[in-house]
Amino acid sequence: MDAAPNNFSAKEVNPLANLDEWDDDLLQRYPDPDSIATAKKTEEYRTYDEHTKDHVREFYRINHTYQTYAFVQEKRNNYLKFDKKEMPIWDAFQFLNQLVDDSDPDTDLDQFQHLLQTSEAIRRDGHPDWMVLVGLMHDMGKVLCLFDEPQWAVVGDTFPVGCAFSDKIVYSEFFKNNPDFSNPAYNTQLGIYEKGCGLRNVTMSWGHDEYVYHMLKGRIPEGGLYMLRYHSFYSWHREGEYDYLLDDHDREMLKWVELFNPYDLYSKNPEVPDWNKLKPYYEALVAKYLPATLKF
Ligand SMILES: [Fe+2]
Ligand SMILES: [Fe+2]
């Protein structure tokens, strides 16, 4: 059963002026005491104003209303078949870059630049090469927008569905509009899950994280897969919620998710990486871990 109506209005599909408004909002929520100040000094290259705030609020109102357990199952059944497209990885980055941010073309980085800045920051700090690859790939799932998915089914904080929503999730007050909120099968602390069942047995709200995790499953070490799958699960990795769903393996893996998060949030920089210089390294890295073509 489709839990959400199929005919969303244009505003409901794209409440954000661009996807980066969500990232900008995360920086407001989780400012980095070190690098935010220096980045701002370089240039006020991002503005977070009342418009952004309203867009983000509206974005979460819709996200929290329509991300039901049934909605997620429908998306998983559709997208985890990976039968939509197949292309060489470097074409995939170009495809992803069709997500053009037209709000401020002078100052906004495209998706590939964000990925490269993230991976380069990880590389600079001497982490394993598979983590550099995670930096490069972590937002590849945003291509879902190019398959006409609404923004709120691609980005935004993710959270477990099928059990009670944590009130530490951003704008959690909007969950009262979600049909699962008043469904006794889903609205207890554990809902359909068993205590300590482990996140691998928990269905997360649908978005770019879960999608890219399935894309790279079996290709990189477990820590990297956790980074991909849970990088937007802020109520877990930043707020410490949902302990009752975790098993020891999740608790062990949390350190990898925490290690990755600052590179995602705080590596944004107005300086564009010199791709021609970096290309040989990344071609070798991608060839080491990924197949010649990626399926979407
Ligand atoms: Fe992401
Ligand atoms: Fe990111």
UniProtKB/TrEMBL annotation:
Pfam families: MIOX (PF05153). It is found in: Cytoplasm. GO terms for cellular component: cytoplasm. GO terms for biological process: inositol catabolic process. Signal peptide: none annotated. The keyword Oxidoreductase applies. The keyword Kinase does not apply. One of its GO terms (molecular function) is iron ion binding. Keywords: Cytoplasm, Iron, Metal-binding, Oxidoreductase. This is Inositol oxygenase. It comes from Pedobacter polaris. Its cofactor is Fe cation.
